[in-house]
Every structure is written in C-alpha cells, then in structure tokens.
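Forum > Structural Biology > Help requests

Title: Can anyone predict the 3D structure of Glutamine--fructose-6-phosphate aminotransferase [isomerizing]?

Hi all, first post here. I have the sequence for Glutamine--fructose-6-phosphate aminotransferase [isomerizing] but no way to get a structure on my laptop. I'd be grateful if someone could post the structure tokens.
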Amino acid sequence: AREDGRRFAHHTRREIAEQPEALAATDAALKGLALPPDVVACDRFTVIACGSSLFAGATAREAIERAAGVTVDLEIASEFRDRAAPPRGIAILISQSGETADTIAAMARFRAAGLSTIGMVNVRESVIGRTAELVWPISAGQEIGVAATKSFTAQLLALMRFGIALGEARGTGDAAFRTRLARALDDLPRICTEAEAMEPIARILAERIAGEEEALFIGRGWGAALAQEGALKLKELSYIRAEGYPSGELKHGPIAVIREGSPVIVCTPGDAGQAKVLANASAVAARGAHLVALTDVGGAEAAAATAAETITMPGDALVAPFAQAVFLQLLAYHTAVVLGHDVDRPRNLAKSVTVE
Ligand code: G6P
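Reply #1:
Sure, ran it for you. Structure tokens for Glutamine--fructose-6-phosphate aminotransferase [isomerizing] below:
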C-alpha cells in the first residue's frame, strides 16, 4: 500500500501512479544545478539512448531546440557505437539504469574523442552516473516494472528543464517559450494525477485493443516520438504488434496496411501543429481506420471532427506529452491485464540490458 492507502495489483501500476512524486522529486534534484561553461558554449547535442529512454529524448527534442536555440540529434546507442562518423559536440546519455551496455559503449566513443558527456540517469551509482562529466539526474525512485513508466516522464521533465537552463545560460532560443514552459512544468504533478484519473477510459479502450492483432500510433514532432513510445509500451506489455510512425510518412507505406476497423491512435496537441496531424489522420480514416485521438482541450473540437473517438487530456499543449504518456501507459497496462499477461515481467524482456 502507498502512503495514501491505495493498493495496486502490480508494481507497474503503482509506478504509473507514482508519477506526481517522481516528477516533484526530479525537479527538487535539479534545483540549483548549474551548467558548466563547455555545455553553455555548445550548440549541438547528441542524445544517445535505448528503448523508452531514446523515445524520451525524441519527445523532448522539440522543446529543447526551441527553448535553447540549439540542435539536438538523436542516436540509437546500439547503432551509434559502430558508426564510423566521428562524434561531435556533447553527448546526452539517457539511461534509467545507467548500466545499458550499448549506451555505455556509445558514451566511450565521445570520451575517447575528448568530448564531454552528460549522463541523465535514475540510478546515480551506475556506470553512466559515475563516469559522465555532468550528471543531470532524474529522481523517479526505484522502478521495478520492466517497462519504463515513471522514469519516462521524469526524463521528459529533466530534458525540458535542461533546455530551459541552457537557453537562459546561453541567451539563445525563445525566451517567451521558456517562461511559458517553465510555468507549465511546475504544474505537472497535478496534470499527471488528473491524467491517471482517466483510467476508466483507458480500460474501455484496452478491452477493444486486446481483441486486435495490431495497432498503429501516429503523430508529428513530439507526437511522432510519443507515438513510438505508446507502440513500444503496448508491444512490451500486451505482445500486440504495434507501430509508432510519423503521420507525414503514412503515405509512404504504412497506409497500405490499413483495413476497415484498424485501430489508429493519434497523439495530437491542440496547438498549431494539430492541423497537419489531423489531415494525415483523415487520410487513414478514409481507408476505414478507427481513429482514436488523444488531445488537450484546445484540440478537442478539431480532433472530434476527424476522429471516431476523441480523448481530451488535462492541461494544455505544453504538457500534452506528459498527460498523453500517462494515458498510453494505462492503455498498455490494461490491455496486458485483459490478456492475462505478467505485466511486471513481460516475456523475453529484461529491465536493464547489460550485454551488447
Ligand atoms: C530495457 C528496458 C526498457 C528501457 C531500456 C533502456 O529494454 O526494458 O524499459 O527503456 O532497456 O534502459 P535504460 O536503463 O538505459 O534506460
């Protein structure tokens, strides 16, 4: 039982519920951390990670680039470790455990080239936590469920706070955006509590998805990255074949697999980015897909005109990645529960992959 007396059937479900605390603790851990001069001077960062940590980097990239006016590249650690291209700039290694072999190997390439590394870890006493020149920590608390939940949103928060701190220190990027984002992030514990309260809706959707053989998740910008995380979560926990795709790419292949009733989950913010996602989504709807749109209050009306179902998450477009992440976790969790799977220890998977 938790302090608030709630009991959960699985660690994974409890960890989904712990996101408000995990986010508040991460903010507390980051408070007062200063960026060293070489980081402030850098305008090109490479996020390197695996699994959900990689998708956290991908989801936060847009916010960092806008807040700080820098370029953020993304690299899959297992691919980057074998690349011939010389490392450039500063690496941001994102790893809950700090022990993922491929991420450690990618880090070694930066260090061998004499370049700085930033470790974003949950476990301070880990290889990446001990080796990185700068640790920009998350403080999500121990995560037992194999599938990342609270560590994912804590990584998103830490990355966005990094972008804000970097933009302020450099004096580059969009200052008004930084102010709005910083204020929105302060409100995250409440947003995540409200998102968790949408569990009954996630459960109903899970019952339908549990009867499907496949699911497609789409979005643009951060929504494309979050779509990949939503698909990964569903795969990991329910073993249903799921794909996350940038919606602008649908016409280059994935639209061919759409049949009558194919479930398509759309991650869309209620801001300027929405119209393009919805235009892409309506093209799959026209081929018979059953569209479920996740959005915020600003986007609900437009989404409802396109999607068969619209799920309006708490908060505005700035915090939409967090609210939608919580919902996607609940969706994957309940789909696995309906199917009777071992949610905390999915088949074939390990919490930390310490071999190449
Ligand atoms: C494994 C876990 C994932 C995790 C990934 C990266 O695949 O099952 O949940 O996202 O490793 O782990 P890391 O500790 O480096 O974040």
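Strands lie at 44-49, 71-76, 90-95, 117-121, 134-135, 214-219, 241-246, 263-267, 290-296, 309-313. Residues 83 and 106 are 10 Å apart (CA to CA).
Shout if anything looks off.
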